Amino acid sequence: MVVGELRDEAVDHLFHALADATRRDILRRCAGDEPSVSRLAAAYPMSFAAVQKHVAVLEHAGLVTKQRRGREQLVRTDPGAVRWARQALDQLEMAWRGRVDRMSEVLAPPVTQREHNPTRGRDR
Amino acid sequence: MSVTSVDKDFDNLTVTLVAEFDAPIERVWQLWADPRQLERWWGPSSHPATVEKHDLTTGGEVLYFMTGPDGERSRAWWRITSVTPPTSLEFTDGFADQDGTPIAGTTTTVQVRLAHHDDRTRMEVRSIFDSREHMEQLDRMGAIEVFQQTVGQMDALLAD
Fold first, then answer.
1. Structurally, what CATH architecture does the domain formed by A3-80 represent?
2. Looking at beta carbons, which residues of chain B come within 8 Å of A89?
3. Domain residues of chain A, as ranges?
Protein backbone atom coordinates (compact mmCIF):
# COMPACT_ATOMS: atom_id res chain seq x y z
CA MET A 1 0.00 0.00 0.00
CA VAL A 2 1.30 3.40 -0.93
CA VAL A 3 0.59 4.91 2.44
CA GLY A 4 2.22 1.99 4.22
CA GLU A 5 5.51 2.95 2.69
CA LEU A 6 5.29 6.32 4.35
CA ARG A 7 4.79 5.21 7.90
CA ASP A 8 6.70 6.22 10.99
CA GLU A 9 10.05 7.78 10.28
CA ALA A 10 9.25 8.78 6.73
CA VAL A 11 6.15 10.57 7.91
CA ASP A 12 8.08 12.36 10.63
CA HIS A 13 10.62 13.51 8.07
CA LEU A 14 7.85 14.72 5.82
CA PHE A 15 6.15 16.84 8.45
CA HIS A 16 9.41 18.14 9.82
CA ALA A 17 10.33 19.20 6.30
CA LEU A 18 7.04 21.01 5.82
CA ALA A 19 7.04 22.75 9.18
CA ASP A 20 9.31 25.53 8.01
CA ALA A 21 8.34 28.56 5.98
CA THR A 22 11.60 28.70 4.00
CA ARG A 23 11.32 25.09 3.00
CA ARG A 24 7.74 25.56 1.89
CA ASP A 25 8.88 28.52 -0.15
CA ILE A 26 11.59 26.39 -1.73
CA LEU A 27 8.94 23.81 -2.62
CA ARG A 28 6.91 26.53 -4.25
CA ARG A 29 9.83 27.76 -6.31
CA CYS A 30 10.86 24.28 -7.37
CA ALA A 31 7.36 23.26 -8.42
CA GLY A 32 7.03 25.44 -11.47
CA ASP A 33 10.70 25.72 -12.15
CA GLU A 34 13.82 23.64 -11.71
CA PRO A 35 16.36 26.05 -10.25
CA SER A 36 19.89 25.13 -9.28
CA VAL A 37 20.87 25.21 -5.62
CA SER A 38 22.97 28.29 -6.22
CA ARG A 39 20.11 30.12 -7.90
CA LEU A 40 17.88 29.20 -4.97
CA ALA A 41 20.52 30.39 -2.51
CA ALA A 42 20.56 33.80 -4.18
CA ALA A 43 16.85 34.17 -3.44
CA TYR A 44 17.19 33.99 0.34
CA PRO A 45 18.96 36.21 2.85
CA MET A 46 20.95 33.30 4.17
CA SER A 47 24.12 31.45 3.34
CA PHE A 48 24.48 28.99 0.50
CA ALA A 49 25.16 26.31 3.11
CA ALA A 50 21.94 27.12 4.95
CA VAL A 51 19.87 26.85 1.77
CA GLN A 52 21.69 23.69 0.84
CA LYS A 53 20.74 22.28 4.23
CA HIS A 54 17.07 23.13 3.70
CA VAL A 55 17.19 21.41 0.32
CA ALA A 56 18.78 18.37 1.96
CA VAL A 57 15.95 18.17 4.50
CA LEU A 58 13.40 18.36 1.69
CA GLU A 59 15.27 15.74 -0.28
CA HIS A 60 15.48 13.44 2.73
CA ALA A 61 11.71 13.73 3.14
CA GLY A 62 11.21 12.85 -0.52
CA LEU A 63 9.66 16.22 -1.31
CA VAL A 64 12.27 17.27 -3.85
CA THR A 65 14.72 15.48 -6.08
CA LYS A 66 18.12 16.75 -7.14
CA GLN A 67 19.52 16.18 -10.54
CA ARG A 68 23.02 16.97 -11.62
CA ARG A 69 23.43 18.92 -14.82
CA GLY A 70 27.02 19.76 -15.57
CA ARG A 71 28.37 21.54 -12.54
CA GLU A 72 24.92 22.44 -11.26
CA GLN A 73 22.46 20.60 -9.09
CA LEU A 74 18.88 21.22 -10.18
CA VAL A 75 16.14 20.97 -7.58
CA ARG A 76 12.68 19.81 -8.44
CA THR A 77 9.59 19.39 -6.27
CA ASP A 78 8.05 15.93 -6.29
CA PRO A 79 4.33 16.61 -6.74
CA GLY A 80 3.33 13.20 -5.40
CA ALA A 81 4.98 13.70 -2.04
CA VAL A 82 3.60 17.21 -1.64
CA ARG A 83 0.17 15.96 -2.54
CA TRP A 84 0.51 13.20 0.02
CA ALA A 85 1.30 15.62 2.84
CA ARG A 86 -1.54 17.83 1.80
CA GLN A 87 -3.88 14.89 1.91
CA ALA A 88 -2.69 13.89 5.36
CA LEU A 89 -3.74 17.27 6.74
CA ASP A 90 -6.95 17.10 4.75
CA GLN A 91 -7.64 13.78 6.36
CA LEU A 92 -7.62 15.28 9.83
CA GLU A 93 -9.95 17.98 8.60
CA MET A 94 -12.26 15.35 7.14
CA ALA A 95 -12.28 13.40 10.40
CA TRP A 96 -13.48 16.49 12.25
CA ARG A 97 -15.97 17.46 9.58
CA GLY A 98 -17.42 13.97 9.89
CA ARG A 99 -17.66 14.40 13.63
CA VAL A 100 -19.40 17.74 13.32
CA ASP A 101 -21.91 16.23 10.89
CA ARG A 102 -22.63 13.41 13.29
CA MET A 103 -22.92 15.85 16.20
CA SER A 104 -25.52 17.76 14.21
CA GLU A 105 -27.44 14.56 13.67
CA VAL A 106 -27.39 13.73 17.37
CA LEU A 107 -28.64 17.22 18.15
CA ALA A 108 -31.42 17.01 15.58
CA PRO A 109 -32.08 13.48 14.30
CA PRO A 110 -32.78 13.67 10.57
CA VAL A 111 -36.36 12.41 10.93
CA THR A 112 -37.64 15.67 9.55
CA GLN A 113 -35.65 18.29 7.68
CA ARG A 114 -34.17 20.23 10.54
CA GLU A 115 -33.52 23.29 8.42
CA HIS A 116 -37.21 23.62 7.65
CA ASN A 117 -38.82 24.59 10.88
CA PRO A 118 -42.33 25.66 9.86
CA THR A 119 -42.80 27.89 12.90
CA ARG A 120 -40.38 30.51 11.77
CA GLY A 121 -38.80 32.31 8.92
CA ARG A 122 -41.29 31.49 6.20
CA ASP A 123 -42.48 34.89 5.09
CA ARG A 124 -39.34 36.92 5.32
CA MET B 1 -23.51 23.92 6.85
CA SER B 2 -22.40 23.49 10.45
CA VAL B 3 -18.71 23.96 9.75
CA THR B 4 -18.02 27.64 9.29
CA SER B 5 -14.25 27.63 8.96
CA VAL B 6 -11.22 25.36 8.88
CA ASP B 7 -7.67 26.56 9.28
CA LYS B 8 -4.69 24.30 8.68
CA ASP B 9 -1.43 25.46 10.16
CA PHE B 10 1.58 23.63 8.76
CA ASP B 11 4.00 25.28 11.16
CA ASN B 12 2.24 23.95 14.21
CA LEU B 13 0.63 20.88 12.64
CA THR B 14 -2.69 22.18 13.86
CA VAL B 15 -6.14 22.01 12.38
CA THR B 16 -8.63 24.51 13.80
CA LEU B 17 -12.25 23.99 12.95
CA VAL B 18 -15.17 26.23 13.82
CA ALA B 19 -18.72 24.95 13.69
CA GLU B 20 -22.10 26.34 14.60
CA PHE B 21 -24.98 24.34 15.98
CA ASP B 22 -28.62 25.28 16.16
CA ALA B 23 -28.79 24.30 19.82
CA PRO B 24 -28.10 25.86 23.22
CA ILE B 25 -24.62 25.58 24.67
CA GLU B 26 -25.69 23.18 27.44
CA ARG B 27 -27.08 20.83 24.83
CA VAL B 28 -23.87 20.87 22.79
CA TRP B 29 -21.84 20.33 25.94
CA GLN B 30 -23.81 17.14 26.57
CA LEU B 31 -22.40 15.72 23.33
CA TRP B 32 -19.03 15.67 25.10
CA ALA B 33 -20.16 15.14 28.68
CA ASP B 34 -22.57 12.24 28.17
CA PRO B 35 -20.70 9.07 27.14
CA ARG B 36 -23.73 7.61 25.37
CA GLN B 37 -24.00 10.74 23.21
CA LEU B 38 -20.25 10.85 22.65
CA GLU B 39 -20.41 7.31 21.26
CA ARG B 40 -22.83 8.46 18.61
CA TRP B 41 -20.44 10.87 16.94
CA TRP B 42 -16.82 10.32 17.96
CA GLY B 43 -16.04 7.43 15.63
CA PRO B 44 -17.00 7.21 11.95
CA SER B 45 -19.79 4.77 11.12
CA SER B 46 -17.15 2.25 9.99
CA HIS B 47 -15.43 2.45 13.41
CA PRO B 48 -17.96 3.34 16.10
CA ALA B 49 -16.64 4.16 19.56
CA THR B 50 -17.66 2.44 22.78
CA VAL B 51 -16.89 4.40 25.93
CA GLU B 52 -15.94 2.25 28.92
CA LYS B 53 -14.92 4.95 31.37
CA HIS B 54 -15.83 8.60 31.29
CA ASP B 55 -14.47 10.91 33.96
CA LEU B 56 -14.63 14.43 32.63
CA THR B 57 -12.71 16.11 35.44
CA THR B 58 -9.25 17.65 35.39
CA GLY B 59 -6.80 14.76 35.60
CA GLY B 60 -9.58 12.30 34.82
CA GLU B 61 -9.68 9.95 31.89
CA VAL B 62 -11.99 8.65 29.23
CA LEU B 63 -11.34 5.11 28.03
CA TYR B 64 -12.89 3.87 24.83
CA PHE B 65 -12.40 1.50 21.97
CA MET B 66 -13.31 1.69 18.32
CA THR B 67 -14.67 -1.36 16.55
CA GLY B 68 -13.71 -1.88 12.92
CA PRO B 69 -15.68 -3.62 10.17
CA ASP B 70 -14.05 -6.98 10.95
CA GLY B 71 -14.76 -6.66 14.64
CA GLU B 72 -11.22 -5.63 15.52
CA ARG B 73 -10.95 -3.26 18.44
CA SER B 74 -8.59 -0.31 18.80
CA ARG B 75 -8.28 0.90 22.36
CA ALA B 76 -7.86 4.58 23.01
CA TRP B 77 -8.00 7.12 25.79
CA TRP B 78 -8.34 10.76 26.70
CA ARG B 79 -6.49 12.39 29.55
CA ILE B 80 -8.37 15.50 30.67
CA THR B 81 -6.07 18.44 31.24
CA SER B 82 -8.69 21.12 31.77
CA VAL B 83 -12.47 21.27 31.91
CA THR B 84 -14.89 24.14 32.53
CA PRO B 85 -18.49 23.14 31.77
CA PRO B 86 -20.07 24.12 29.50
CA THR B 87 -17.49 26.25 27.71
CA SER B 88 -14.10 24.59 27.63
CA LEU B 89 -12.46 21.18 27.47
CA GLU B 90 -8.86 20.21 26.82
CA PHE B 91 -7.48 16.72 26.64
CA THR B 92 -4.85 14.54 25.08
CA ASP B 93 -6.18 11.73 22.93
CA GLY B 94 -4.09 8.68 22.23
CA PHE B 95 -4.13 5.00 21.42
CA ALA B 96 -3.38 2.14 23.77
CA ASP B 97 -2.32 -1.45 23.31
CA GLN B 98 -4.70 -4.30 24.10
CA ASP B 99 -3.76 -4.11 27.79
CA GLY B 100 -4.74 -0.46 27.87
CA THR B 101 -1.16 0.80 28.13
CA PRO B 102 -0.82 4.10 26.24
CA ILE B 103 1.26 3.81 23.08
CA ALA B 104 3.97 6.45 23.16
CA GLY B 105 3.97 9.04 20.39
CA THR B 106 0.36 8.56 19.39
CA THR B 107 -1.18 11.55 21.09
CA THR B 108 -3.10 14.52 19.88
CA THR B 109 -3.96 17.55 21.98
CA VAL B 110 -7.54 18.67 21.52
CA GLN B 111 -8.85 22.03 22.73
CA VAL B 112 -12.58 22.61 22.60
CA ARG B 113 -14.26 25.97 23.17
CA LEU B 114 -18.00 26.50 23.20
CA ALA B 115 -19.68 29.90 23.14
CA HIS B 116 -23.21 31.27 22.93
CA HIS B 117 -23.86 32.78 19.57
CA ASP B 118 -27.33 34.29 19.58
CA ASP B 119 -29.53 31.24 20.15
CA ARG B 120 -26.89 29.02 18.63
CA THR B 121 -23.62 27.56 19.84
CA ARG B 122 -20.24 28.16 18.29
CA MET B 123 -17.73 25.35 18.75
CA GLU B 124 -14.04 25.75 18.07
CA VAL B 125 -11.92 22.60 18.03
CA ARG B 126 -8.18 22.92 17.82
CA SER B 127 -6.45 19.66 17.11
CA ILE B 128 -2.68 19.55 17.44
CA PHE B 129 -1.17 16.32 16.28
CA ASP B 130 2.11 14.67 15.60
CA SER B 131 2.44 12.95 12.29
CA ARG B 132 2.87 9.45 13.57
CA GLU B 133 -0.26 9.63 15.62
CA HIS B 134 -2.04 10.90 12.61
CA MET B 135 -1.05 7.91 10.53
CA GLU B 136 -2.10 5.54 13.31
CA GLN B 137 -5.43 7.24 13.40
CA LEU B 138 -5.82 7.06 9.65
CA ASP B 139 -5.11 3.37 9.77
CA ARG B 140 -7.53 2.67 12.56
CA MET B 141 -10.33 4.59 11.01
CA GLY B 142 -9.94 2.66 7.79
CA ALA B 143 -9.79 5.99 6.07
CA ILE B 144 -6.83 5.21 3.87
CA GLU B 145 -8.96 4.38 0.88
CA VAL B 146 -10.81 7.65 1.10
CA PHE B 147 -7.49 9.34 1.58
CA GLN B 148 -6.07 7.76 -1.54
CA GLN B 149 -9.11 8.70 -3.55
CA THR B 150 -8.83 12.30 -2.54
CA VAL B 151 -7.49 14.29 -5.41
CA GLY B 152 -4.97 16.53 -3.75
CA GLN B 153 -4.33 19.89 -5.23
CA MET B 154 -0.69 20.76 -5.03
CA ASP B 155 -1.53 24.40 -5.56
CA ALA B 156 -3.46 24.47 -2.34
CA LEU B 157 -0.38 23.60 -0.33
CA LEU B 158 1.88 25.80 -2.34
CA ALA B 159 -0.45 28.74 -1.95
CA ASP B 160 -0.36 28.59 1.87
1. Orthogonal Bundle (1.10)
2. 8, 10, 15
3. 3-80
